[in-house]
Amino acid sequence: MPFVDDGFEALLEPFYNGKKLTDPISTKEDKFQLLPAFLKVKGLVKQHIDSYNFFVEHEIKEIVRANRTIRSDVDSNFWLEFRDIRVLRPRRQDHADIKTRKEVSPMECRLRDMTYAAPIEVDIVYIRDKQKISRKNVPLGRMPVMLKSSRCWLSGATNAQMESMNECPLDPGGYFIINGTEKVILIQEQLSKNRVIVEADEKNNIITASCTSSTHERKSKTSVTLKKDKITLVHNVLVENIPIVIVLKAMGGLSDYEIMQLVAGSDGRYQDEFVINFDEATRVGVFTQQQALEYIGARVKMGSKRGQFGPMPRRNNIEDGLDALSNLVVAHVPIEGLDFYPKAIYLAMMTRKVLMASQNTKLVDDRDFVGNKRLELAGQLLSLLFEDHFKRFMGEVKLSIDKFLKKHNRGVALDAVQMVSNHANTIGMGINRAIQTGNWTVKRFNMNRAGVTHVLSRLSYISALGMMTRISSQFEKTRKVSGPRALQPSQWGMLCTSDTPEGEACGLVKNLALMTHITTNVEEEPVKRWVFTLDAGVEPIRNFSGAEMHREGNFMIHINGTPFALTRYPKRFAHKFRTMRRRGWISPFVSININTHFNAVHIATDEGRICRPYIIVKNGQQKLKPEHLRLLQMGRATFDDFLRKGVVEYLDVNEENDALITIYEDQITQSTTHLEIEPFTILGAVAGLIPFPHHNQSPRNTYQCAMGKQAIGAIAYNQFNRIDTLLYTLVYPQRPMVISKTIQLVHYDKLPAGQNATVVVMSYSGYDIEDALVLNKASIDRGFGRCQVFRKYATELIKLPNGKKDRMGNPDYTLEKHAILDVDGLATVGYQVKSGEVMVKKETPEDQTSTGIGLDRGSNMFRDASISYRIPDPAYIDKVMLSRTEKDSMVVKVQTRQTRRPELGDKFSSRHGQKGVVGIIVDQEDMPFADSGVTPDIIMNPHGFPSRMTVGKLLECLTGKASIVHGRPDYGFGDAFRSHPLEEMSKVLVDHGFSWEGKDYFTSGITGEPLEAYIFNGPIYYQRLKHMVQDKMHSRAHGPMAILTRQPTEGRSRDGGLRLGEMERDCLIAYGASQLLLERLMISSDGTEIDICQQCGLFGYKGYCHTCKSTREVAKMTMPYAAKLLVQELISMNVGVRLQLEDEFPHPKQV
Amino acid sequence: MDGMDYDPMAMDGDSEQPQVKISAVLQQADKTHVDFELSRTNLSFANSLRRVIQAEVPTIAIDLVEIEVNTSVLADEFIAHRLGLIPLDSKNVGDLNYSRDCDCEQYCEQCSVTLNLHAKCTSDDIMKVYASDLVTDGQHANSVGKPVINDPEGLGCLLAKLRMGQELRLTCIAKKGIAKEHAKWMPTSAVGFEYDPHNKLQHTDLWFENDTDPAKEWPKSKHAEWEDPPQEGEPFDYDAVPNRFYFEVEAAGNMEPDQIIQNGIRILQQKIGGLLKGLDPRKYGGEEEPDFDGPRSPDMNLDGSTTPWQDTGYQTAYGGGYGGGQTSYGGSQTSYGQGSQSSFGQDGQGSYGQGGGGSYGNMTAYGTTPYGQSSWQ
Question: Ranges for the DNA-directed RNA polymerase subunit 2 hybrid-binding domain (chain A) (predicted)?
Answer without folding.
Answer: 686-1054
